[in-house]
Amino acid sequence: MNPESKTFVLVAGAWAGGWAWNAVVRDLEQRGHRAIALTLPGSATGDDPATVSLGDAITFVASEIERRDLRDIVLVGHDVSGYPVTAVANRLADRIARVVYWSAFVPRAEESIFEGIPAEDTDMLKSGAAAYGGHAVLAPYARWQSSFVHTAPEPVQALTYSLLRPLPIAYMSERMTAADSAVPRLPVSYLVGTQDRSLPRNENWWTPKYTARLGVEPVLFEGTHAAHLLDPATVADLLETTSNP
After folding, report:
1. Do residues 148 and 138 touch, judged by C-beta distance below 8 A?
2. How do residues 133-179 score in pLDDT, each as one tens digit?
3. Less Cβ crowding at N or C end of the chain, within 10 Å?
4. What are phi and psi of 197, to 5 degrees?
5. In sequence order, what DSSP letters do the residues of the chain get, joined into one string?
6. What is the predicted pLDDT for the residue at 4?
7. H or E segment at 228?
8. What is the mean pLDDT of the chain?
9. What pLDDT is stored for residue 157 in this prediction?
């Protein structure tokens, strides 16, 4: 293996699974890296979101890293997976070379994602949860279309939405302990697409709100919140370059 090669562990965000990283994984592999994309519990076909907790997500990611005996990894969190990724980085610091957050929520002790996002977004998601027995949330198509994949043609917007699955509500409603929420004592990078509309472009946007929690400057690039689906080569480029010492 190329001595410059790295091992990337990519954790999916809301409503997506490891499949959302497939094109990025292929690109990284073609560059000589190893890339593993994970689907959080409750987000795969046949999973019951009612039985899943945020702690299950943390345990799953940590156990996959240990089961595969991965070391010196670049751990990547997108969107809601910023919470479990942070906890895993604190629990398995000796196995991780760098943490890369991409438009990801950075936890604060005893604050859930619902408590950190705009109240209107929390209300929108919670009101839609009734369709899933109150156990899962999924953004309406109009929100996905206008805020996540707005640069894509309408057929692509519709296709990508059809692939999404409701997210266990526990991932957004549950809090983490101070120990799991601590800023990882590891090299950290934070990526943000300048066309990202998933959060309002105000004090609630990804930066400086979450970059300030980490004490880093953002790496800005031209792209949306779903750039791994729309422009995977750019995402692979960014992961490769930001993972360098």
Report:
1. no
2. 999 999 999 999 999 999 999 999 999 999 999 999 999 999 999 99
3. C
4. -110, 10
5. --TT--EEEEE--TT--GGGGHHHHHHHHHTT-EEEEE--TTSSTT--GGG--HHHHHHHHHHHHHHTT--SEEEEEEETTHHHHHHHHHHSGGGEEEEEEEEEPPPBTTB-HHHHS-HHHHHHHHHHGGGGTTSEE---HHHHHHHTSTTS-HHHHHHHHHT--PEETHHHH----HHHHSPPSS-EEEEEETT--SS-SSTTSHHHHHHHHHT---EEES--TTHHHH-HHHHHHHHHHHT--
6. 82
7. helix 227-230
8. 97
9. 98
Tokens describing residue 66? 């240990």
CATH number of 7-242: 3.40.50.1820
Q: How many Cα atoms are found within 13 Å in the side-chain-facing hemisphere of 52?
A: 25
Segments making up each domain of the chain, as ranges? 7-242
